[in-house]
Specification:
disordered N terminus; Purple Acid Phosphatase, chain A, domain 2; six-stranded mixed beta sheet; 22% strand
């Protein structure tokens, strides 16, 4: 016999699966429709997911990066069943998926993304991003959980042929996770219990490298969150730390337009990368959880384990050594 919470999750998955087939090609600026009612009530919310970032496949790949990323994958693969730091949040459940907010590769090339064995002679194999991180999870040394990934600046600003974004589009088509997409099939949104998640990739913007992620975000929130006050979580590469808000990445005007878009919704968290060290930054009353580079750099490494309940959220930073570092908590009561 299954419990009430498990039954509700199964019913929600079936509802979203049925709806997503008809709305997967929704336009960038068009409403993306989902069932009118949230599939799981707030009182039944229990969402666990992991986050890792800035894998930078291609930088010192043979020397240290391949082994470093495999160490991070090993941490992710063994977190479930352990306990969150402290007593409040208990054991770590199997994650819904792994979120990876950008800089999957170091220079956006085919070898970084697809693996070196496809381009050099046998005997010189070096794994690329998709060798270690199958979109639906793998086995052995591979990440065993499904992933939702963003592209970062390193994935696009050295390339004119969009190797990584095109690879993400292909993998989005192969993914078994039920989501809605804009018509470029890069930006996506989905429900885990009553929480709305939106992946805006590099950052929430319009033309250029943002690839019209902001119009997609605006349309999705209007269609699927409206005035419900249910929680919203956004993943993007550029965040709100001092490094990421430099105007060479995105501008004050773009951040203001982003704020105008989300200010009337209950955005409870943003997950970002780019900075390469672990941090929590507050921006306009919203917590931005900034990821370290997974394999290390700037004196930090590791991944985040996240649990959201009806009342509280924990974001716990697990180092590659196996030790807990930061453990941030926040209230999930709707913001005024």
């Amino acid at each position: 016999m299954i419990g009430r919470r498990q039954f509700l999750r199964l019913a929600a998955g079936a509802a979203v699966a049925g709806a997503s087939l008809s709305r997967s090609s929704a336009g960038v600026g068009q409403p993306v429709m989902t069932p009118a009612d949230s599939p799981v009530a707030a009182a039944d919310r229990d969402v666990t997911f992991f986050v890792a970032s800035d894998t930078h496949y291609g930088i010192d790949q043979r020397e240290t990066n391949e082994a470093g990323n495999k160490s991070a994958i090993g941490v992710l693969n063994t977190l479930a069943g352990q306990s969150f730091p402290g007593r409040e949040f208990g054991p770590i459940a199997q994650p819904r998926a792994i979120l990876i907010p950008g800089d999957l590769t170091d220079s956006g090339t085919a070898v970084n993304f697809n693996g070196y064995s496809r381009f050099i002679v046998a005997g010189s194999h070096v794994d690329g991003y998709i060798d270690d991180i199958p979109v639906n999870g793998g086995e052995g040394h591979q990440l065993k959980y499904p992933v939702i990934e963003s592209y970062g600046n390193h994935d696009v600003d050295n390339q004119s042929d969009d190797v990584v974004p095109k690879g993400i589009v292909r993998r989005n088509g192969e993914s078994k996770l039920k989501r809605v997409f804009c018509d470029n099939r890069l930006h996506s949104a989905w429900d885990w219990d009553d929480v709305r998640f939106v992946n805006v990739n590099l950052y929430p913007g319009k033309a250029g490298w943002a690839k019209n992620s902001l119009p997609f975000l605006a349309a999705d929130l209007l269609a699927n969150v409206a005035d419900s006050r249910r929680p919203v979580v956004i993943m993007q590469h550029y965040g709100f730390d001092e490094f990421s808000i430099e105007p060479r990445w995105w501008t004050d005007a773009e951040r203001e337009e982003f704020h105008e878009t989300i200010k009337n919704y209950n955005v409870v968290a943003i997950f970002s990368g780019h900075q390469h060290w672990a941090d929590r930054v507050e921006w306009n009353g919203i917590n931005d959880y900034v990821l370290p580079r997974a394999k290390g750099g700037n004196d930090t490494d590791g991944v985040y384990a996240v649990r959201m309940t009806d009342r509280r959220m924990i974001v716990a930073h697990r180092r590659l050594s196996g030790a807990w570092d930061h453990a941030w908590t926040q209230d999930l009561s709707p913001r005024a």
